[in-house]
Write a structure and sequence with these properties.
With 345 residues, the protein is of the alpha/beta class. Helices cover 38% and strands 12% of the residues. The protein has a 7-stranded mixed beta sheet with strand order 3-2-1-4-7-10-11, sandwiched between helices. A 4-stranded mixed beta sheet has the order 8-5-6-9, with helices on both faces.
Length: 345
């Protein structure tokens, strides 16, 4: 592969330029973007990094692309990883998966025992082992959510009130685990969807387990702070400096919580750790329209459709985060760079 240095690219100044298109699909070709989106539709509980790893594993065993050398393998993964990250508006989670998988493959293929000049295993056998180990990793990584839930429920006490937002399956699992333990607590859920709040999927799920839930809009977050004990959110990516990328409004919640001394706990699988070090909100490399300035020449009735699969995100810096709960345990934001060093070096 080319290089493993990670810096967030500058976002495009306008969304009028469409994202790069993956190559057209054919009977013998492998369209990585279509395969990725189809996998997420078929397995909605799968995280985006694991989906990215899964499609790269499929690529290596695809008849039209099966590599025969180390160089071919690394070039194939590098090219398709670039296509995949370029085909989505928010590449953070995808990059976490493609980089993690790429680092693993480089480590295995360049190991001294895997030479291609008669020493060590034949290349085809090595490649099969890489593919099988990758599949095992994906299956084991799926278990991280429940491990995190068992740890995170320890932050919830009898009589406490939790403020949360977004669609984090880790947070949902932690709240349900706390309820199953017999804890009595309440949840304030920040919902900015256009649907009536009683129809929100996460609210319905929690209420079915007899957890009292109050649905509020983003403008009521500050009002609710006096009633909460902690904030619990998920993340699309955990960045190199210990900050997170999560649904739009997470940064606002964290600022308000910090102003009142309320702890902010982030629940995220370690395969979401990604080597990106942003300087601010505009430094994420995410193509999204948050500030949509208009003049009189624009139609007042013009409406931009929201892509439900690629919702807007923001960056929450590490100083606003109390702890990161992963399947490896509870980390401080400053420990993220150490964990990345273990993975990469």
């Amino acid at each position: 592969m080319a290089s493993h240095s990670r810096t967030a690219s500058k976002p495009e100044s306008s969304l009028s330029t469409p994202p790069p298109e993956p190559p057209a699909s054919s009977g013998s070709d492998f369209n990585i973007h279509e395969t990725y989106t189809s996998l997420l539709r078929a397995q909605p509980s799968l995280t985006k990094p694991l989906a990215a790893i899964s499609v790269l594993i499929s690529l290596l065993s695809h008849p039209a692309h099966t590599p025969s050398t180390i160089s071919e393998t690394l070039s194939l993964l590098s090219a398709h990883s670039e296509i995949l990250t370029g085909s989505v508006r928010n590449p953070i989670a995808v990059k976490a998966g493609t980089d993690l998988w790429g680092r693993y493959v480089v480590g295995v293929l360049q190991a001294p025992s895997n030479g291609t000049k008669g020493q060590g295993e034949e290349f085809s056998a090595v490649l099969r082992r890489v593919i099988e180990n990758g599949k095992v990793f994906v299956e084991r990584a799926k278990e991280a959510r429940q491990i995190i839930a068992r740890t995170a429920k320890g932050f919830i006490q009898d009589g406490s009130t939790v403020l949360t937002a977004g669609k984090s399956r880790c947070v949902s699992a932690a709240l349900l685990a706390a309820a199953e333990k017999g804890l009595q607590f309440r949840v304030i859920y920040v919902d900015d969807s256009p649907l009536p709040r009683k129809e929100n999927e996460m609210i319905r799920e929690l209420r079915r387990k007899s957890i009292p839930v109050a649905g509020i809009g983003p403008s009521a977050v500050a009002y609710s702070l006096s009633a909460i004990n902690l904030v619990m959110v998920g993340a699309e990516g955990v960045l190199e400096n210990g900050g997170i990328v999560a649904g739009l409004g997470t940064y606002q919640m964290a600022i308000l919580a910090r102003s009142k001394g309320k702890p902010v706990h982030v629940l995220a699988e370690s395969h979401k750790f990604v080597r990106v070090f942003p300087m601010g909100q505009e430094d994420l490399g995410v193509r999204q329209r948050v500030l949509d300035f208009r003049g009189l020449d624009k139609s007042e009735g013009e409406v931009h459709e929201k892509n439900e699969e690629e919702e807007a995100v923001d960056y929450t810096p590490p100083e606003l985060i109390t702890s990161l709960v992963t399947e490896a345990g509870v980390l401080t934001p400053s420990a993220v760079s150490e964990e990345l060093i273990k993975i990469w070096y």
